[in-house]
Amino acid sequence: MAEGSNVLLGILAIILGLLVIAFPLFSVFTASVLAGFAIILLGIWLLVQSFGVWSTSKGISIVYLILGLIALVGGIGLFGSILAFSFLASFWLYFAGFFLIISGIMSLFAKEGTMGKGAGGAGVILGILYIILASYAWNPYYLALLIGIWLIIDGVALFFISPSDMVKTPVPPE
């Protein structure tokens, strides 16, 4: 059985996985709010940059200004809008699938034992499935379900992995 820190992380992953599965539309709404808020902050930063470089380069300042305004309008339009988020999410769905695949591959190399390798393999399989579903399914419920399943599987795997079983970077001899 794993030590305390992994058990807590495992419990947190399982709880988050169950929440995503139980409330998929809330999860999509939350994602649209967070994405919209992040884009609004990016737009504000670009506007600040626009005024900061005005004295040195008016052309770059205008580009920053235009990008900042586009980001503000896009962020406000995305903030809390499930429809806009679903429309724009096709790129992000592929990105999330690739992220699951990469994190699964990393788990295959970073975790020892059958449960660690199994969780990594599950991440790769679910990432591939996520990309396939992203191509055909417009219903965010199924995609949220896959993320929830991945969190639960990884959380359960953390119960059986002790921190000493995690692969450490070897220190080269001097």
Explained architecture:
- With 174 residues, the protein is an all-alpha fold.
- It has one domain.
- It has six helices and no strands.
- It is elongated, with a radius of gyration of 21 Å.
- The protein starts with a helix and ends in a 15-residue tail after the last helix.
- The mean pLDDT is 76.
Helix and strand composition category: mainly alpha
Q: How many distinct helices?
A: 6
Q: Major beta sheet, specifics?
A: none
Proportion of β residues? Answer: under 5%
- What's the number of structural domains? 1
How would you describe the shape?
elongated
What is the oligomeric state here? single chain
The first-to-last residue Cα distance is 35 Å
Integer-rounded radius of gyration: 21 Å
Total count of strands: 0
In round numbers, the mean pLDDT is 76
Task: Give start-end ranges of low-pLDDT stretches.
Answer: none
* SSE arrangement, N to C: HHHHHH
Helical residue percent?
Answer: over 70%
Concise account of the structure shown:
By secondary structure, the chain is mainly α.
How are the SSEs placed, and which strands pair?
Blueprint: H1 4-22, H2 24-52, H3 58-78, H4 82-110, H5 113-136, H6 140-159
Helix pairs in contact: 1-6, 2-3, 2-4, 2-6, 4-5, 5-6
